[in-house]
Amino acid sequence: MPILYRQGTADAQIPVQTAPASLARLCAVGDVVDYREIEGATHAGSLYGDDRVTEARAWLRDRIAGDPATDTCPAA
To answer: How many CB atoms are located within 10 Å of the residue 61 CB?
Structure first.
């Protein structure tokens, strides 16, 4: 199952500096990860800011329709 991983650069709960280690673990086990860093977004803002809920719904609809997710993991 692909993962939409959005990270706000102003997230105080899960700092953006933790993302590389999290991504490395997910990618190492073969997960397809669509990582999106959102400049200035807080923890809640990475989901609820601007049109992000609409974007997440569209991403999920595409997966249900069988469209492949973008994989931002580095090539093995």
So the answer is: 10
